[in-house]
Amino acid sequence: MTEFTSDIGLIVVIAVAYLFVVLGVGQYAARRTGESREEYLMASRSFGTLVLLAALFATNMSAVVMIGAPGLAYNIGPNAYGYFIGLLVFTFPLFMMTIGHRVWLIGKKFNHITPGQVMNHRFDSTYLGVLTMALFTFWTVPYLLVGIQGGGIAVQQLTEGFVPYWAGGLIVTLVVLLYVTAGGMRGTGWTNAFQGAVFVTALVGFAIAISRGIGGFEAATSAALSEAPPLLNRADIPPLGFKQYLSVAVLVSIETFILPHLFIRYMTSRSIGNLRQTAVAYPIALMLTWGPAVMLGFWGVGQFPEIANPDFVLPALIAANFPTWLVGLALAGILAAIMSTLDGQVLTLATMLTEDILRPFFDVTERTEVVATRVFVVGLLAIAYIAALLTRESIIDTTIFAFSGYALMFFPIVSGFYSVSTSKYAAGIGLILGFVGLWGFQLGVIPGDLAFGFLPVIPLLVVQLLAMAVVTLVTDPPAEKIVDEYRSLFNGQW
Fold it and tell me: Is domain 6-392 in CATH 1.20.1730.10, yes or no?
Protein backbone atom coordinates (compact mmCIF):
# COMPACT_ATOMS: atom_id res chain seq x y z
CA MET A 1 0.00 0.00 0.00
CA THR A 2 1.25 3.50 -0.85
CA GLU A 3 2.40 5.52 2.14
CA PHE A 4 0.12 8.39 3.09
CA THR A 5 1.55 11.85 2.38
CA SER A 6 0.26 15.40 2.73
CA ASP A 7 -0.11 15.62 -1.07
CA ILE A 8 -2.31 12.53 -1.17
CA GLY A 9 -4.28 13.90 1.75
CA LEU A 10 -4.96 17.16 -0.11
CA ILE A 11 -6.11 15.28 -3.22
CA VAL A 12 -8.47 13.13 -1.15
CA VAL A 13 -9.88 16.15 0.72
CA ILE A 14 -10.63 18.04 -2.50
CA ALA A 15 -12.27 15.00 -4.10
CA VAL A 16 -14.35 14.27 -1.00
CA ALA A 17 -15.43 17.93 -0.82
CA TYR A 18 -16.61 17.70 -4.41
CA LEU A 19 -18.59 14.54 -3.68
CA PHE A 20 -20.33 16.30 -0.80
CA VAL A 21 -21.28 19.16 -3.13
CA VAL A 22 -22.81 16.64 -5.55
CA LEU A 23 -24.74 15.07 -2.68
CA GLY A 24 -25.93 18.52 -1.71
CA VAL A 25 -27.27 19.19 -5.22
CA GLY A 26 -28.95 15.78 -5.16
CA GLN A 27 -30.56 16.45 -1.79
CA TYR A 28 -31.76 19.88 -2.94
CA ALA A 29 -33.47 18.21 -5.89
CA ALA A 30 -34.86 15.49 -3.62
CA ARG A 31 -36.62 18.04 -1.43
CA ARG A 32 -38.48 19.24 -4.52
CA THR A 33 -39.35 15.75 -5.70
CA GLY A 34 -42.74 14.35 -4.82
CA GLU A 35 -43.52 10.72 -4.15
CA SER A 36 -45.84 10.16 -7.10
CA ARG A 37 -44.80 7.80 -9.89
CA GLU A 38 -44.80 10.56 -12.53
CA GLU A 39 -42.80 12.93 -10.33
CA TYR A 40 -40.15 10.47 -9.08
CA LEU A 41 -39.62 8.62 -12.37
CA MET A 42 -40.11 11.47 -14.88
CA ALA A 43 -39.74 14.75 -12.93
CA SER A 44 -43.30 15.49 -14.13
CA ARG A 45 -41.91 15.82 -17.71
CA SER A 46 -40.74 19.32 -16.84
CA PHE A 47 -37.13 19.54 -18.07
CA GLY A 48 -36.19 22.71 -19.93
CA THR A 49 -33.42 22.90 -22.51
CA LEU A 50 -30.48 23.24 -20.09
CA VAL A 51 -31.44 20.37 -17.81
CA LEU A 52 -32.57 18.21 -20.73
CA LEU A 53 -29.26 18.76 -22.53
CA ALA A 54 -27.39 17.85 -19.36
CA ALA A 55 -29.59 14.83 -18.75
CA LEU A 56 -28.93 13.55 -22.28
CA PHE A 57 -25.33 14.60 -22.73
CA ALA A 58 -23.85 14.05 -19.29
CA THR A 59 -25.67 10.74 -18.92
CA ASN A 60 -23.98 9.54 -22.13
CA MET A 61 -20.45 10.90 -21.55
CA SER A 62 -18.99 8.89 -18.73
CA ALA A 63 -15.78 6.94 -18.41
CA VAL A 64 -16.03 6.48 -22.17
CA VAL A 65 -14.92 10.08 -22.79
CA MET A 66 -12.75 10.64 -19.71
CA ILE A 67 -10.97 7.28 -19.64
CA GLY A 68 -11.92 5.34 -22.77
CA ALA A 69 -11.38 8.07 -25.41
CA PRO A 70 -7.83 8.95 -24.27
CA GLY A 71 -7.04 5.25 -24.06
CA LEU A 72 -8.31 4.69 -27.60
CA ALA A 73 -6.36 7.69 -28.91
CA TYR A 74 -3.24 6.34 -27.22
CA ASN A 75 -3.60 3.27 -29.47
CA ILE A 76 -4.80 4.78 -32.75
CA GLY A 77 -3.97 8.49 -32.55
CA PRO A 78 -6.19 11.46 -33.51
CA ASN A 79 -8.21 9.13 -35.73
CA ALA A 80 -10.05 8.16 -32.54
CA TYR A 81 -12.09 11.35 -32.96
CA GLY A 82 -13.74 10.32 -36.21
CA TYR A 83 -13.76 6.68 -35.11
CA PHE A 84 -16.42 7.34 -32.48
CA ILE A 85 -18.23 10.60 -33.24
CA GLY A 86 -17.40 11.57 -36.83
CA LEU A 87 -20.85 10.57 -38.08
CA LEU A 88 -22.69 10.92 -34.77
CA VAL A 89 -22.51 14.73 -34.73
CA PHE A 90 -24.69 14.73 -37.86
CA THR A 91 -27.02 11.78 -37.24
CA PHE A 92 -27.92 12.41 -33.59
CA PRO A 93 -29.57 15.82 -34.09
CA LEU A 94 -31.36 14.43 -37.16
CA PHE A 95 -32.70 11.48 -35.16
CA MET A 96 -33.72 13.71 -32.26
CA MET A 97 -35.72 16.05 -34.50
CA THR A 98 -37.48 13.18 -36.25
CA ILE A 99 -37.66 9.95 -34.23
CA GLY A 100 -37.11 11.77 -30.93
CA HIS A 101 -40.01 14.09 -31.73
CA ARG A 102 -42.23 11.06 -32.21
CA VAL A 103 -41.06 9.53 -28.94
CA TRP A 104 -41.90 12.80 -27.17
CA LEU A 105 -45.37 12.83 -28.75
CA ILE A 106 -45.97 9.25 -27.62
CA GLY A 107 -44.99 10.03 -24.04
CA LYS A 108 -47.16 13.14 -23.93
CA LYS A 109 -50.20 11.44 -25.51
CA PHE A 110 -50.17 8.06 -23.78
CA ASN A 111 -48.14 8.80 -20.60
CA HIS A 112 -45.64 6.06 -21.39
CA ILE A 113 -42.36 6.06 -19.49
CA THR A 114 -40.28 3.16 -20.83
CA PRO A 115 -39.44 1.76 -24.27
CA GLY A 116 -41.15 -1.47 -23.18
CA GLN A 117 -44.45 0.33 -22.59
CA VAL A 118 -44.19 1.95 -26.02
CA MET A 119 -43.55 -1.46 -27.63
CA ASN A 120 -46.46 -3.15 -25.85
CA HIS A 121 -48.90 -0.41 -26.78
CA ARG A 122 -47.77 0.19 -30.36
CA PHE A 123 -47.71 -3.52 -31.24
CA ASP A 124 -50.72 -4.50 -29.10
CA SER A 125 -48.65 -6.99 -27.11
CA THR A 126 -48.40 -8.20 -23.53
CA TYR A 127 -44.85 -9.54 -23.45
CA LEU A 128 -42.92 -7.65 -26.13
CA GLY A 129 -42.21 -4.95 -23.56
CA VAL A 130 -40.74 -7.52 -21.18
CA LEU A 131 -38.42 -8.77 -23.92
CA THR A 132 -37.38 -5.19 -24.71
CA MET A 133 -36.74 -4.47 -21.05
CA ALA A 134 -34.74 -7.69 -20.58
CA LEU A 135 -32.46 -6.97 -23.53
CA PHE A 136 -31.91 -3.34 -22.54
CA THR A 137 -31.04 -4.50 -19.03
CA PHE A 138 -28.63 -7.12 -20.33
CA TRP A 139 -26.73 -4.59 -22.45
CA THR A 140 -26.75 -1.83 -19.85
CA VAL A 141 -25.31 -3.80 -16.92
CA PRO A 142 -21.87 -4.06 -18.58
CA TYR A 143 -22.15 -0.36 -19.41
CA LEU A 144 -22.83 0.29 -15.72
CA LEU A 145 -19.66 -1.44 -14.66
CA VAL A 146 -17.68 0.72 -17.12
CA GLY A 147 -18.52 3.73 -14.93
CA ILE A 148 -17.48 1.96 -11.77
CA GLN A 149 -14.28 0.76 -13.46
CA GLY A 150 -13.51 4.33 -14.52
CA GLY A 151 -14.01 5.61 -10.99
CA GLY A 152 -11.77 2.93 -9.53
CA ILE A 153 -9.04 3.58 -12.10
CA ALA A 154 -9.08 7.37 -11.65
CA VAL A 155 -9.07 7.32 -7.83
CA GLN A 156 -6.37 4.66 -7.65
CA GLN A 157 -4.09 6.40 -10.15
CA LEU A 158 -4.44 9.94 -8.86
CA THR A 159 -3.93 8.96 -5.22
CA GLU A 160 -0.84 6.95 -6.28
CA GLY A 161 -2.47 3.75 -5.12
CA PHE A 162 -3.27 4.97 -1.59
CA VAL A 163 -6.98 4.51 -2.34
CA PRO A 164 -7.17 1.12 -4.10
CA TYR A 165 -9.27 0.33 -7.15
CA TRP A 166 -11.99 -1.44 -5.16
CA ALA A 167 -12.39 1.51 -2.78
CA GLY A 168 -12.51 4.09 -5.56
CA GLY A 169 -15.23 2.13 -7.33
CA LEU A 170 -17.14 1.71 -4.07
CA ILE A 171 -17.04 5.44 -3.30
CA VAL A 172 -18.50 6.29 -6.71
CA THR A 173 -21.17 3.61 -6.32
CA LEU A 174 -22.29 4.80 -2.88
CA VAL A 175 -22.50 8.50 -3.82
CA VAL A 176 -24.61 7.70 -6.87
CA LEU A 177 -26.79 5.41 -4.77
CA LEU A 178 -27.53 8.16 -2.25
CA TYR A 179 -28.65 10.90 -4.63
CA VAL A 180 -30.48 8.66 -7.10
CA THR A 181 -32.60 6.94 -4.46
CA ALA A 182 -33.39 10.31 -2.88
CA GLY A 183 -34.12 12.46 -5.92
CA GLY A 184 -35.13 10.15 -8.75
CA MET A 185 -35.25 11.70 -12.24
CA ARG A 186 -35.07 15.27 -10.92
CA GLY A 187 -32.07 14.35 -8.78
CA THR A 188 -30.21 12.88 -11.75
CA GLY A 189 -31.19 15.76 -14.03
CA TRP A 190 -30.03 18.50 -11.69
CA THR A 191 -26.82 16.75 -10.70
CA ASN A 192 -26.18 16.05 -14.40
CA ALA A 193 -26.44 19.77 -15.13
CA PHE A 194 -23.90 20.53 -12.41
CA GLN A 195 -21.55 17.66 -13.16
CA GLY A 196 -21.78 18.15 -16.92
CA ALA A 197 -20.53 21.72 -16.53
CA VAL A 198 -17.75 20.50 -14.24
CA PHE A 199 -16.41 17.77 -16.51
CA VAL A 200 -16.61 19.77 -19.76
CA THR A 201 -14.72 22.62 -18.07
CA ALA A 202 -12.24 20.15 -16.60
CA LEU A 203 -11.58 18.38 -19.89
CA VAL A 204 -10.93 21.60 -21.81
CA GLY A 205 -8.75 22.76 -18.93
CA PHE A 206 -6.79 19.50 -18.99
CA ALA A 207 -5.96 19.95 -22.68
CA ILE A 208 -4.77 23.53 -22.19
CA ALA A 209 -2.78 22.94 -18.99
CA ILE A 210 -1.17 19.65 -20.04
CA SER A 211 -0.12 20.89 -23.48
CA ARG A 212 1.51 23.93 -21.86
CA GLY A 213 3.16 21.70 -19.27
CA ILE A 214 4.89 19.64 -21.94
CA GLY A 215 5.97 22.53 -24.14
CA GLY A 216 2.86 23.52 -26.05
CA PHE A 217 0.67 21.96 -28.74
CA GLU A 218 3.44 21.55 -31.30
CA ALA A 219 5.93 20.06 -28.85
CA ALA A 220 3.35 17.66 -27.41
CA THR A 221 2.32 16.50 -30.88
CA SER A 222 5.91 16.13 -32.09
CA ALA A 223 6.82 14.07 -29.04
CA ALA A 224 3.94 11.68 -29.74
CA LEU A 225 4.83 11.33 -33.43
CA SER A 226 8.49 10.71 -32.65
CA GLU A 227 7.44 7.71 -30.55
CA ALA A 228 4.78 6.37 -32.94
CA PRO A 229 4.81 7.88 -36.47
CA PRO A 230 2.13 5.45 -37.80
CA LEU A 231 -0.50 7.12 -35.61
CA LEU A 232 -1.14 9.62 -38.39
CA ASN A 233 -1.39 6.90 -41.03
CA ARG A 234 -4.53 4.97 -40.24
CA ALA A 235 -3.89 2.40 -42.97
CA ASP A 236 -1.12 0.94 -40.83
CA ILE A 237 -3.37 0.45 -37.79
CA PRO A 238 -5.71 -2.60 -37.95
CA PRO A 239 -8.73 -1.09 -36.13
CA LEU A 240 -8.85 1.69 -38.70
CA GLY A 241 -9.43 -0.30 -41.84
CA PHE A 242 -12.28 1.15 -43.91
CA LYS A 243 -14.81 -1.57 -43.09
CA GLN A 244 -14.22 -1.45 -39.35
CA TYR A 245 -14.13 2.35 -39.32
CA LEU A 246 -17.46 2.45 -41.16
CA SER A 247 -18.86 -0.23 -38.84
CA VAL A 248 -18.13 1.80 -35.72
CA ALA A 249 -19.50 5.00 -37.31
CA VAL A 250 -22.82 3.30 -38.13
CA LEU A 251 -22.90 1.44 -34.83
CA VAL A 252 -22.38 4.52 -32.65
CA SER A 253 -24.82 6.60 -34.70
CA ILE A 254 -27.80 4.35 -34.15
CA GLU A 255 -27.06 2.91 -30.72
CA THR A 256 -26.57 6.33 -29.12
CA PHE A 257 -30.05 7.43 -30.06
CA ILE A 258 -31.73 4.25 -28.80
CA LEU A 259 -29.91 4.06 -25.44
CA PRO A 260 -32.66 3.46 -22.86
CA HIS A 261 -31.41 6.19 -20.51
CA LEU A 262 -31.67 8.66 -23.41
CA PHE A 263 -34.93 7.26 -24.80
CA ILE A 264 -36.73 7.84 -21.50
CA ARG A 265 -35.32 11.35 -21.21
CA TYR A 266 -36.71 12.42 -24.59
CA MET A 267 -40.11 12.16 -22.89
CA THR A 268 -39.09 14.40 -19.96
CA SER A 269 -38.84 17.51 -22.16
CA ARG A 270 -41.22 20.30 -21.23
CA SER A 271 -41.94 21.07 -24.89
CA ILE A 272 -40.93 20.09 -28.40
CA GLY A 273 -39.07 23.39 -28.61
CA ASN A 274 -36.81 22.34 -25.73
CA LEU A 275 -36.13 19.03 -27.49
CA ARG A 276 -35.17 20.76 -30.74
CA GLN A 277 -32.88 23.23 -28.99
CA THR A 278 -31.19 20.31 -27.27
CA ALA A 279 -30.74 18.57 -30.63
CA VAL A 280 -28.78 21.59 -31.89
CA ALA A 281 -26.64 21.94 -28.74
CA TYR A 282 -25.83 18.23 -28.32
CA PRO A 283 -23.30 17.85 -31.19
CA ILE A 284 -21.54 21.04 -30.08
CA ALA A 285 -21.11 19.57 -26.61
CA LEU A 286 -19.83 16.34 -28.18
CA MET A 287 -17.13 18.13 -30.14
CA LEU A 288 -16.09 20.20 -27.12
CA THR A 289 -15.39 17.07 -25.09
CA TRP A 290 -14.12 14.49 -27.59
CA GLY A 291 -11.56 16.82 -29.17
CA PRO A 292 -9.59 17.46 -25.96
CA ALA A 293 -10.03 13.84 -24.79
CA VAL A 294 -8.57 12.45 -28.01
CA MET A 295 -5.64 14.89 -28.14
CA LEU A 296 -4.75 14.13 -24.52
CA GLY A 297 -4.57 10.41 -25.23
CA PHE A 298 -2.46 11.07 -28.34
CA TRP A 299 -0.04 13.32 -26.44
CA GLY A 300 0.24 10.62 -23.79
CA VAL A 301 2.12 8.46 -26.31
CA GLY A 302 5.03 10.89 -26.24
CA GLN A 303 5.07 11.12 -22.44
CA PHE A 304 4.42 7.49 -21.50
CA PRO A 305 5.36 5.32 -24.50
CA GLU A 306 5.36 2.10 -22.49
CA ILE A 307 2.25 2.51 -20.34
CA ALA A 308 0.83 -0.89 -19.41
CA ASN A 309 -2.85 -0.01 -19.66
CA PRO A 310 -3.92 2.81 -22.05
CA ASP A 311 -7.01 3.45 -19.90
CA PHE A 312 -4.59 4.98 -17.33
CA VAL A 313 -3.07 7.54 -19.71
CA LEU A 314 -5.18 10.58 -18.70
CA PRO A 315 -4.68 10.08 -14.94
CA ALA A 316 -0.96 9.59 -15.62
CA LEU A 317 -0.75 12.86 -17.58
CA ILE A 318 -2.60 14.71 -14.82
CA ALA A 319 -0.38 13.33 -12.07
CA ALA A 320 2.80 14.21 -14.02
CA ASN A 321 1.85 17.75 -15.02
CA PHE A 322 -0.43 19.21 -12.34
CA PRO A 323 0.35 20.60 -8.89
CA THR A 324 -1.25 18.66 -6.06
CA TRP A 325 -4.29 20.89 -5.55
CA LEU A 326 -5.05 20.78 -9.26
CA VAL A 327 -4.80 16.98 -9.27
CA GLY A 328 -7.60 16.99 -6.70
CA LEU A 329 -9.76 19.20 -8.93
CA ALA A 330 -8.92 17.00 -11.92
CA LEU A 331 -10.06 13.93 -10.04
CA ALA A 332 -13.31 15.74 -9.25
CA GLY A 333 -13.78 16.44 -12.97
CA ILE A 334 -13.25 12.81 -13.89
CA LEU A 335 -15.65 11.64 -11.19
CA ALA A 336 -18.23 14.15 -12.49
CA ALA A 337 -18.16 12.53 -15.93
CA ILE A 338 -18.41 9.05 -14.51
CA MET A 339 -21.21 9.64 -12.02
CA SER A 340 -23.32 11.69 -14.41
CA THR A 341 -23.72 8.62 -16.61
CA LEU A 342 -23.90 5.97 -13.94
CA ASP A 343 -26.84 7.70 -12.24
CA GLY A 344 -28.97 7.92 -15.39
CA GLN A 345 -28.28 4.33 -16.37
CA VAL A 346 -29.13 2.79 -13.02
CA LEU A 347 -32.31 4.86 -12.58
CA THR A 348 -33.42 3.86 -16.08
CA LEU A 349 -32.89 0.16 -15.44
CA ALA A 350 -34.71 0.35 -12.10
CA THR A 351 -37.56 2.26 -13.79
CA MET A 352 -37.89 -0.42 -16.48
CA LEU A 353 -37.95 -3.21 -13.92
CA THR A 354 -40.74 -1.42 -12.06
CA GLU A 355 -42.77 -0.24 -15.05
CA ASP A 356 -42.38 -3.27 -17.34
CA ILE A 357 -42.62 -6.10 -14.81
CA LEU A 358 -44.04 -4.93 -11.49
CA ARG A 359 -46.71 -2.53 -12.75
CA PRO A 360 -48.35 -4.65 -15.51
CA PHE A 361 -48.30 -8.01 -13.71
CA PHE A 362 -48.94 -7.07 -10.07
CA ASP A 363 -51.53 -4.90 -8.34
CA VAL A 364 -49.34 -2.20 -6.77
CA THR A 365 -49.84 1.38 -5.67
CA GLU A 366 -47.80 4.31 -6.93
CA ARG A 367 -46.08 4.48 -3.54
CA THR A 368 -45.05 0.83 -3.86
CA GLU A 369 -43.70 1.52 -7.37
CA VAL A 370 -41.46 4.32 -6.10
CA VAL A 371 -40.17 2.19 -3.22
CA ALA A 372 -39.56 -0.75 -5.56
CA THR A 373 -37.60 1.47 -7.94
CA ARG A 374 -35.33 2.53 -5.09
CA VAL A 375 -34.79 -1.11 -4.10
CA PHE A 376 -33.93 -1.99 -7.71
CA VAL A 377 -31.39 0.86 -7.78
CA VAL A 378 -29.63 -0.64 -4.77
CA GLY A 379 -29.60 -4.15 -6.27
CA LEU A 380 -28.38 -3.06 -9.70
CA LEU A 381 -25.53 -1.00 -8.31
CA ALA A 382 -24.47 -3.90 -6.10
CA ILE A 383 -24.38 -6.27 -9.09
CA ALA A 384 -22.46 -3.75 -11.22
CA TYR A 385 -19.93 -3.12 -8.46
CA ILE A 386 -19.21 -6.82 -7.98
CA ALA A 387 -18.89 -7.26 -11.76
CA ALA A 388 -16.44 -4.34 -11.93
CA LEU A 389 -14.25 -6.11 -9.37
CA LEU A 390 -14.29 -9.36 -11.34
CA THR A 391 -13.47 -7.98 -14.80
CA ARG A 392 -10.77 -5.60 -15.96
CA GLU A 393 -11.46 -5.58 -19.68
CA SER A 394 -10.59 -2.43 -21.63
CA ILE A 395 -13.31 0.19 -21.21
CA ILE A 396 -13.57 0.65 -24.98
CA ASP A 397 -13.83 -3.14 -25.56
CA THR A 398 -16.66 -3.42 -23.03
CA THR A 399 -18.37 -0.37 -24.51
CA ILE A 400 -18.22 -1.58 -28.13
CA PHE A 401 -19.80 -4.91 -27.16
CA ALA A 402 -22.64 -3.20 -25.25
CA PHE A 403 -23.11 -0.65 -28.05
CA SER A 404 -23.52 -3.46 -30.59
CA GLY A 405 -26.35 -4.91 -28.53
CA TYR A 406 -28.11 -1.54 -28.36
CA ALA A 407 -27.71 -0.98 -32.11
CA LEU A 408 -29.50 -4.24 -32.85
CA MET A 409 -32.54 -2.94 -30.95
CA PHE A 410 -32.85 0.20 -33.08
CA PHE A 411 -34.89 -1.11 -36.03
CA PRO A 412 -37.32 -3.33 -34.05
CA ILE A 413 -38.26 -0.31 -31.91
CA VAL A 414 -38.21 2.46 -34.52
CA SER A 415 -40.05 0.39 -37.16
CA GLY A 416 -43.29 0.88 -35.24
CA PHE A 417 -43.01 4.67 -35.59
CA TYR A 418 -42.83 4.61 -39.40
CA SER A 419 -44.52 1.42 -40.59
CA VAL A 420 -48.20 0.65 -39.98
CA SER A 421 -47.81 -2.95 -41.12
CA THR A 422 -44.93 -4.12 -38.89
CA SER A 423 -46.32 -6.75 -36.52
CA LYS A 424 -45.35 -7.64 -32.97
CA TYR A 425 -43.93 -10.89 -34.31
CA ALA A 426 -41.64 -9.01 -36.71
CA ALA A 427 -40.43 -6.72 -33.91
CA GLY A 428 -39.94 -9.70 -31.58
CA ILE A 429 -38.02 -11.71 -34.20
CA GLY A 430 -35.84 -8.67 -34.87
CA LEU A 431 -34.94 -8.31 -31.18
CA ILE A 432 -34.22 -12.02 -30.69
CA LEU A 433 -32.27 -12.39 -33.92
CA GLY A 434 -30.03 -9.44 -33.05
CA PHE A 435 -29.27 -10.79 -29.59
CA VAL A 436 -28.66 -14.39 -30.64
CA GLY A 437 -26.65 -13.38 -33.70
CA LEU A 438 -24.32 -11.11 -31.77
CA TRP A 439 -23.61 -13.80 -29.21
CA GLY A 440 -23.16 -16.30 -32.03
CA PHE A 441 -20.29 -14.21 -33.37
CA GLN A 442 -18.93 -13.52 -29.90
CA LEU A 443 -18.77 -17.23 -28.97
CA GLY A 444 -17.50 -18.36 -32.35
CA VAL A 445 -20.66 -20.33 -33.20
CA ILE A 446 -21.03 -18.09 -36.26
CA PRO A 447 -17.70 -17.91 -38.16
CA GLY A 448 -16.11 -14.48 -38.08
CA ASP A 449 -15.60 -14.65 -41.85
CA LEU A 450 -19.34 -14.15 -42.28
CA ALA A 451 -18.92 -10.56 -41.09
CA PHE A 452 -16.97 -9.96 -44.34
CA GLY A 453 -14.46 -7.70 -42.60
CA PHE A 454 -17.08 -5.53 -40.91
CA LEU A 455 -17.97 -5.64 -37.24
CA PRO A 456 -20.59 -8.39 -36.73
CA VAL A 457 -23.28 -5.78 -36.04
CA ILE A 458 -23.34 -4.65 -39.69
CA PRO A 459 -24.28 -7.96 -41.39
CA LEU A 460 -26.60 -8.67 -38.47
CA LEU A 461 -28.48 -5.41 -39.10
CA VAL A 462 -28.98 -6.43 -42.73
CA VAL A 463 -30.20 -9.92 -41.83
CA GLN A 464 -32.40 -8.46 -39.09
CA LEU A 465 -34.14 -6.07 -41.51
CA LEU A 466 -34.70 -8.83 -44.07
CA ALA A 467 -36.14 -11.18 -41.44
CA MET A 468 -38.46 -8.47 -40.09
CA ALA A 469 -39.70 -7.71 -43.61
CA VAL A 470 -40.48 -11.38 -44.29
CA VAL A 471 -42.27 -11.87 -40.95
CA THR A 472 -44.27 -8.67 -41.54
CA LEU A 473 -45.50 -10.04 -44.86
CA VAL A 474 -46.78 -13.32 -43.36
CA THR A 475 -48.30 -12.03 -40.08
CA ASP A 476 -51.19 -9.75 -39.24
CA PRO A 477 -50.50 -6.10 -38.32
CA PRO A 478 -51.62 -4.63 -34.98
CA ALA A 479 -55.28 -3.77 -34.46
CA GLU A 480 -56.52 -1.00 -36.74
CA LYS A 481 -57.58 1.10 -33.75
CA ILE A 482 -53.99 1.28 -32.46
CA VAL A 483 -52.57 1.88 -35.92
CA ASP A 484 -55.00 4.78 -36.36
CA GLU A 485 -53.98 6.28 -33.01
CA TYR A 486 -50.35 6.43 -34.05
CA ARG A 487 -51.14 7.48 -37.63
CA SER A 488 -53.13 10.48 -36.42
CA LEU A 489 -50.51 11.29 -33.75
CA PHE A 490 -47.72 11.37 -36.32
CA ASN A 491 -49.70 13.10 -39.04
CA GLY A 492 -47.58 15.84 -40.59
CA GLN A 493 -44.47 14.90 -38.56
CA TRP A 494 -41.14 13.78 -40.01
Answer: yes
